[in-house]
């Protein structure tokens, strides 16, 4: 594997407002490969923004190291001299890391074109070349016809597209998206996410996607880290995390993103689940790839005498792989239940028992 484009190692960020200590980020290590769309998901206050702001040193870590493109921007370890890129060098590095935010941060008194041009104010290029570049960027985000309008004349999605054009003005290799879709409606959110995906695909742009919505991660990210109280609870490929989540918080995020929580709640109240007999299990089976419902269910009966009554089924496509989820009641030969569950595990089917106990 090639060296990561971003490597955060043992990052700690501690704030001490009025003598109170807040451990905003605690011992977080993350490697991002070039071309990744890396989701960082967590509820408000989890430490996501603080963590990603260390990538371009808008936030200096209390300790740990930050490497971008293999170059150490910051390094501070206990009892060792610290290292930090500063001044003009830091400014130049920052220019290669674009950022977009929830509230767009546009200049309201400037036109769309001027907002994007503003990002090029340090460029030594001639005015004509800069303007040409701005027009290319506006075309890329499909806003050429709005160049002379002001932000107040644009919708939220259009404002975010201006912000994206501005963030790309200095040809960054990395784009940090900090809750960029949180203020947008679902349809506009999808449009912005797919624009990020397009930029990622066509320009190999690496995206750090900070969000409290697993839905956004599911839509475009290939990797994800789940944060809570300043720590990363788990991280991995989106497919692995969705099919084999270990932390309760991750399960909660996934259930919301896939609408499974609603399905589970509704089905939990059905007679079949309310009147679950001894030895029956109400379970969620999740699988990915080639495993399909039918052979799985048939095998359970043929080999173990276990009947799986399907109450709900859903298939999603994640990273071009099918991920299936079934809510079932398993019943039958109780002494074979353990073996049946082992069989499912051997087929890489993850089983989450929602109600009932094994005999
Ligand atoms: N400059 C600061 N001074 C003091 N405390 C801070 C500062 N910045 C962040 N914090 C605290 O650090 C913790 C993590 O905040 P952070 O903004 O990184 O979380 P987040 O996951 O990005 O949430 P949100 O989406 O709400 O911003 C919070 O408790 C926050 O109040």
UniProtKB/TrEMBL annotation:
Q: Where is the ABC transporter domain?
A: 8-254
Q: Which SUPFAM superfamilies match?
A: ACT-like, P-loop containing nucleoside triphosphate hydrolases
GO function terms (MF aspect): ATP binding
InterPro entries under this entry? AAA+_ATPase (IPR003593), ABC_transporter-like_ATP-bd (IPR003439), ABC_transporter-like_CS (IPR017871), ACT-like_dom_sf (IPR045865), MetN_ABC_transporter-like (IPR050086), NIL_domain (IPR018449), P-loop_NTPase (IPR027417)
Q: Is Transport among this UniProt entry's keywords?
A: yes
List the keywords (alphabetical). Amino-acid transport, ATP-binding, Cell membrane, Membrane, Nucleotide-binding, Translocase, Transport
State what protein this is by name.
Methionine ABC transporter ATP-binding protein
Please name the source species. Answer: Fructobacillus parabroussonetiae
